[in-house]
Amino acid sequence: MSDKDCYLSNNLLEVTYKKSKEISDSDRFNMHLHDFYELFYFLEGDVTYYIEGHAYELEKNTLLIMNNRELHKPIFNQDIPYKRIVIHFFPWVLSKYDSYDFNLLECFENRKEAHHNKIYDQDQKIFNYFKKITKYAEQKTEESEIMIETIFVQLLILINKLFTQKEKNEGSTIKYNERILDIITYINNNINKSLSLDFLSDRFYLNKSYLSHIFKKHTGVSIIHYIHYKKIMTAKRLLLDDNSCSEVSSQLNFGDYSTFYRAFKKEVGISPQEYQQKRSAIENYQFFND
């Protein structure tokens, strides 16, 4: 595998292979979510990766799996070279591989959020698939795209097999705060309610200032920002399920539609109606071109 940066984007996935000799501002991104699922393969550096209150200490040949509901962010312990391979993909593009007996997205969807995100690739079987994908991404030959797709499906099959093994490789490397995980679970299970700092401090018998402090310490984001972000991400999913914009605003207790409209546009960059129309157009295009 060459040491040159590599990038590929097509209708199936987005692949980035990158080595940062120095940690840049673009590497130090804020805690965030996105519409797509993510495979993050760590090769070099000194990084602690935060996912919904869990802190994963990374070592070479570590894979992290993240769905579109899990806030995440890397923390750089030292400013040393940082090398990784990242694959982003939308879950619905794999619908043609759906099977009654096997779910390619099992490891993303059938687990508690921020649990079992980490798989240690001891034998580098996962890495070998990543190498093949980046090789075809670099070559850009006539057969590259179909080879990338077939290799990617095989990669997901392997990851699911490793994920479902009884013995998890992450137990001794997870650091977490049980109270914070309880709060995160409560927020995610009640995201349709009107949640506030006052309400949560009463619900969990914690002083407001202390609750704000420990939540930010263990997640990297304020509790109000977390609730806001989760509501917007939930709104995006509800909009894709053909709910009207006013129905989504009401379901998620934004107070009134104008508040929802402003919050959505500020976070996503476009209005709820524009998002719904744009995503519908993309899905229709992919359906007719499969």
Automatic annotation (TrEMBL):
Keywords (A to Z) from UniProt: DNA-binding, Transcription, Transcription regulation
Domain HTH araC/xylS-type stretches: 181-278
Keyword Flavoprotein assigned: no
Any GO MF annotation of the entry: DNA-binding transcription factor activity
InterPro entries registered for this protein in UniProt: AraC-bd (IPR003313), Homeodomain-like_sf (IPR009057), HTH-like (IPR037923), HTH_AraC (IPR018060), RmlC-like_jellyroll (IPR014710)
UniProt xrefs under PANTHER family: ARAC-FAMILY TRANSCRIPTIONAL REGULATOR (PTHR43280)
Protein's name in the database: Transcriptional regulator, AraC family
Organism expressing this protein natively: Halanaerobium kushneri
Lineage: Bacteria, Bacillati, Bacillota, Clostridia, Halanaerobiales
